[in-house]
Amino acid sequence: MIIGICGGTGSGKTTIARKIIESVGRENVILIEQDSYYRNLADMPLDERHQANFDHPDSIDSEMLMNHLKRLRSGNSIEMPVYDFVSHTRSDRCDHLDPKPVVIVEGILIFSEPRILSLLDVRVFVDTPDDIRFIRRLKRDIVERGRTLESVIAQYFATVRPMHFEFVEASKRNADIIIPEGGNTEIGIEFLCSKIREEIGKSNLREIV
């Protein structure tokens, strides 16, 4: 079972994914973040890397992500890339992931790529107001990614905001479930967890039979 969680930057996608994992058990779920599949910009000068548009579908190696999802669905392990957001390059190491009953893939652009969209059994869109998302992104990029206030604001107006309306918001129509105020809507999250536990139970029963 592959579950896609989409939504704008800072919407609460990761929070929801972690709550699902806590509810249904880590032994049952793999979390794949689309951010791990950003293209490697090591060949570009650092100044140019900082100016790259990371909110356009072309910034993602969707071919690799699609192949990895297919491998996990077929019961095979993958080597998931590790991305360095400070240097905008891929690390030399990878994370080894073995298949589990449920795969959660989350990212801002997963509903914008038809090949990824077609692999998703459940599509969840996290709908959070723009101001809340911007504040969350601002805090994250300064604390976790070493950005300055000025650079975060400049990037937001140059690419984040226009790409959100062109690709992310436009892809909301592909969702099966829309959860408002990411991470704070317990009813929607519990409904989703109940569905996942039901599918895990069916899978376990088939294995016994």
Brief descriptors of the model:
44% helix, 209 residues, alpha/beta, two-stranded antiparallel ribbon, Rossmann fold, 7 strands
- Kindly provide the name of the CATH class: Alpha Beta
Q: Give the CATH H-level superfamily.
A: P-loop containing nucleotide triphosphate hydrolases
Mean pLDDT: 91
Distance between the termini: 19 Å
Largest sheet: 5 strands, parallel
Query: In which range does the helix fraction lie?
Result: 40-55%
In the CATH hierarchy, what is the architecture at level 2? Answer: 3-Layer(aba) Sandwich
H/E element string?
EHEHHEEEHEHHEH
| Side-by-side strand order of the widest sheet | 2-5-1-6-7
CATH topology: Rossmann fold
* Strands, count: 7
* Approximate strand percentage: 15-25%
Low-confidence stretches: none
Quickly give the structural class. alpha/beta
The shape, in one word, is: globular
Q: Treating each run of at least 4 consecutive H or I residues as one helix, how many helices?
A: 7
